[in-house]
Amino acid sequence: MADRAPGRPSRGFATRAIHAGQHPDPGTGAVVVPLVTAATFMQKSPGQPGDYEYSRTGNPTRDALEANMASLEGGAGAVACASGMAAIVMAFDLVETGGRVVATNDSYGGTYRVGENVLRRRGLDFTWVDTSDTAATIRELERGAAMLFLETPTNPMLRIADLRTLADAARAHGALVVVDNTFMSPYFQRPLEMGADIVVHSSTKYLNGHSDGVGGILVARDPGHLERFRYLQNAAGAILSPFDSWLLLRSSKTLALRMERHDHNAREVARMLDGHRNVAAVHYPGLPAHPGHELSRRQMSGFGGMLSFDVGTMDRARRVMEALRVFHIAESLGGVESLANHPATMTHASIPEPMRRAMGIGDGLVRLSVGVEDIADLLADLEDALGTLG
User: Fold this and answer.
1) Whole domain around residue 268: which residue ranges?
2) How far is CA 356 from CA 132, 151, 229, 326, 344, in A?
3) Is there a domain that residue 4 lies in?
4) I need a surface site. Which of 20, 27, 60, 294 has the fewest CB within 10 A?
5) 108, 112, 206, 284: which one is catalytic?
C-alpha cells in the first residue's frame, strides 16, 4: 500500500504502521504477511532467478518489514539486521579507515565497546562527547569528522541533543549524521525529518515491544547509503531471520498504541519519584525541571517510557531493585513488561568507571523501562521498594 494516494494527503502513522509493506497475500488473500522460511527459491533456468534466489540476499517477509520501517521513519529504504549492534557496525562502515567519529558519550555501553575495542583497532578514531552540549559538539565537528553519531535521549541519563542544529553543523563540516532512535521509536521522533542521514534501532526494544526477538534496523535517507547497506547485508550476512521479521511486522501494528501507554505510565512514575524522600535525582525529559525539557517538546511528540533515578549508593540501589515485584531486574528495554536495570553493573559495565562517573552513571543509578501495566500497580511496586530504604 502506498503512503500517498493521488489527491490525498499522506496517511497517518498508525495507518502506515498497520499497512505499509503489508499487502494481503495475492495467493490466499491472507491479511497477515506470510512467514516465508525458505532458504532458497526455484529458478526456471540456470542463472535466471525470479524475485528471490537465496534468503540471505532477499526474503519476502523481511522485504515487507523493511518497507514498513522505511515508511515509519520516512527514509528511502531500510535494512533489517540480526541485532541492533549489527546495525550500528553497518552504519560505521560508511567511515573510511582513519576517519573520525564524534559520538555521544552517554550511549548504550555496547556502542562504546564496539567503537573502542573493535573498530578503533581497524583504524577508526572515536571522540566521545556530551552531545547535549551543542557548542562542545560543534567544536569537535570543526576539528574534522566523518560522522556524528547521536543517541538522543541518551542511555541512561536521558540527555537531549539538538538534532536540527547539530545536523546542520555536521553537514556544514562534511560529516554524516547517524541517530540511534531506539528510545523514542519513529512514533515519537523521526530524525530524518530533522536532517539526519541515517537512523538506527535496536528493534529488540520498542519496535518489537514483547521481548521475544533480537534485531536491528537501519533506515537511510540517501539511496546511495541504502545501496551500500544492502550490499553489506548480503555480503556480511548479519540478516534478520524471517521469523523475527514476521514478529516485528506483528508488533508494528500496535506500536502507536503501546508508545502512548509507555509514555503515560512513565510520566506518572517520574512524577512520583521526583517527589520521593529516598530519591536524590530523577532523569526524565518529561519533567519540566529536566534541562532538555523544552528541546524535547520541540523535536519529540512524546517523552517515551525510559527514565532513570538515583538513590545514592550501590547498596541502596540493590535493596530497591531486589524488593521490586512487578518490575523485573533484566537487561534490555521497550517491552510491554516493566524492567529495572543497574547500568553500572549491567548495560554500561563495559565503560571504564571514571568515564561512567563523569557522565553521572554512579552506583546508585537505576534505569527503568516503564511498561504498559496498570499504573497503580507500578506506582505501588516502586513505593514499596523505596520504602525498604526507611
Assistant:
1) 256-387
2) 16, 16, 32, 28, 8
3) no
4) 27
5) 108
